[in-house]
Amino acid sequence: MLELKKIKKQFNGRTILDNFDMQVKDNQITTIVGPSGAGKTTLLRCISGLEKIDSGSFTLDGKPFDPANNRDNDNVIGVVFQDFQLFPNLTVLDNITLAPQLVLKQSKTDAEKRAQKLIDQLNLTGKEGLYPYQLSGGQKQRLAIVRALAMNPKILCYDEPTSALDPDLRQTVEDIILGLKKQNVTQIVVTHDMEFAKNIADQLVRVEPIKA
Amino acid sequence: MLHYVSQILPSLLSGAWMTIKIFFWTLIASIPLGILASLGLTSKIAPLRWILKFYVWLMRGTPLLLQLIFVFYGLPIIGIIFQRYDAALFAFILNYTAYFAEIFRGGFQSIDPGQYESARVLRLTRGQTLRKIVIPQVIKIVVPSIGNETINLIKDSSLVYVIGLGDLLRAGNVATARDVTLLPLVLVGIIYLLMTAVATYVLRKVEQHYRAWR
To answer: What is the pLDDT of residues B72-123, one digit of tens each?
Structure first.
């Protein structure tokens, strides 16, 4: 379980998160909702270590945890970015296997074997040799999910996973997230889409803007 | 005429070899140095940034000819003596590194910061991120500008004439003055055209290679 205690984060003197508490339970889907500018993405960036918190603490499975300085490969926090941020110079397969080979020190064969399983699971079979620009929006997102899953993350975070997609692809994303839950993947989903949030959430966390 | 051409061709080719050597070593040294300098130009370390900005400003703001003269004829006054060839290479590498640094700086700055973040959450180190993700994307962006500079370098190499180095232009000029004929200079022009044609072909192939993705 990931626990956030009294998290405080400011940007340019403006408080975004103030004494924010949250618990992310294992194998569950936690959705973070709230209006635009409330700090949902900032919260996600703090959890994934892309932003340092000003004060407060994290614990992971009861032990102190610092996402911004986390080098433990057993505690990877995966992120699926709103705009996916795939590597345009790498093929689908290389996007997935690069980090497992360089960071987890998997052999090329092992990394590709695991990648192929995930590719098949998320319906990207046959796209292995393509570059990201040759994929549709939905395929790009599935690739971003596969790339994150290939690192065996302790928690997988999504930033507005439905915002860059056509409405009819929302159901596909729901199915993927709920499918991963069945495989015991702990997930945090930031969204402004309440209906989507309610459909997938085990726990719904609301972030409200802080009045100056 | 063919007999005359066969007589002067060895000296022209020897001059062309000097031109190629200067071109080749300048390119080999100044591209990686340009990448390093461009990283310094965007560094968070302010003094490093200031020094490199001054260096780029100085190199781009003064003629390469002046820099050549300064290195070969000027520096000996303060006890720094270069052989002709070394002076040429030194001045060319310094000058072209500055141009390439500016080109690469533009390339690095056009990379989406999200690419660095994406690599960071995947636990890639800074070096791995640069090598595998950022630099290939930067190269794709800068290839056309690097290509222009590469063609310029072939032609600029003729400036070594001023410090008495036996390059292609010098070989042609000597033959023209000695034999009172324009033919050597025409041949020099043809050899330069051949060299730029080869460079253009190679650069086009490099561009095609990077066209596989976008």
So the answer is: 999 999 999 999 999 999 999 999 999 999 999 999 999 999 999 999 999 9
Domain count, chain B: 1
Task: Please give the backbone phi and psi of residue B26, each rounded to the nearest 5 degrees, phi first.
Answer: -65, -45
Q: Are strands A186-190 and A14-24 parallel, antiparallel or unpaired?
A: unpaired
A11 CB within 8 Å of a chain B CB: no
pLDDT at B27: 96
Beta strand pairing status for A63-65 and A55-60? Answer: antiparallel
pLDDT digits (tens, 9 = 90+) for B183-203: 999 999 999 999 999 999 999
Q: What is the dihedral of CA A78, A83, A85, A89, to 10 degrees?
A: 150
- Structural domains in chain A, CATH included, are 2-206 (3.40.50.300)
Please answer yes or no on whether A98 and B120 come within 8 Å at the CB atom. Answer: no
Contact state of A89 with B136 under an 8 Å Cβ cutoff: yes
Hey, CA dihedral for B156, B158, B160, B166, is it positive or negative? positive
CATH number, domain at B206?
Answer: 1.10.3720.10
The amino acid present at A21, given as its one-letter code, is D
Residue A31 has pLDDT above 70, yes or no: yes
Q: Is the pLDDT of residue A36 over 90?
A: no
Of A79, A98, A131, the CB nearest to B132: A98
At residue B10, does pLDDT exceed 70?
yes
Question: CA A39 to CA A15: how far, in whole Å?
Answer: 9
What whole-number distance in Å separates Cα of residue A84 and Cα of residue A161? Answer: 9
Q: Please name the residues in contact with A5: beta carbons below 8 A apart, sequence gap of 6 or more.
A: A21, A56, A57, A58, A59
Could you tell me if B44 lies within 8 Å of chain A, comparing CB atoms?
Answer: no
Residue B136 sits in which domain range? 2-210
Mutation for B interface: A102, A106, A143, A155, most B CBs within 10 A: A102
pLDDT in tens, B26-65: 999 999 999 999 999 999 999 999 999 999 999 999 999 9
Question: From the CA of A110, how many Å to the nearest CA of chain B?
Answer: 18
